[in-house]
Amino acid sequence: MDAGMADISYGELEIKDYLLPLENSETRSTPISHVMLHFSSNVTEKPHTPYQVEDTHKIFIDYGVSAHYVIDREGVIYKFVQEDRIAYHAGSGSLSRFPAYENKLNAYSIGIELLAIGTKEEMSTFITEDTYDALDNSFIGYTDAQYESLKSLLHTIHDRYPEVKRDREHVIGHDEYAPDRKNDPGSLFDWGRIGY
User: pTM, whole model, 2 decimals?
Assistant: First the structure.
């Protein structure tokens, strides 16, 4: 892990600070009203070890994208982008109840990536059916530790940003904002596990 990584905390919640370069984000001047959930992995390149946080960090740098937080399979939370900066995680899309946010949700949201792999259909643009079938079953879906950490992280976000309401209109999946492009966090994600 990067020697410059430090630990920070919000009350009882510990977060490992593993910041991306500043060019992977920009200064925020807009209020935070949403959280967007994603899944990611390096299954295309490393199907036997798809969940190395260092790989995710490097992929984000290489592609010029970012998220504020990444939660690994053991529930460890990594901060990739400071919350006072806009991360590049949402891209183009829209929410029917928030028309002013069309193609602009990055500016109003916190992005959280969970290291996870979806269903065979959801992963079909990334890996072949044979590769999917050969995956360790424990790689598919989400872990109990991830749900617990995500729930705790969301609790601190709600406390710090009252505009982020505790409902499914303000805590959303990437697939709800950009259904033609994205399918994460996918059908294996259990919203009930985090109280929504």
Answer: 0.95
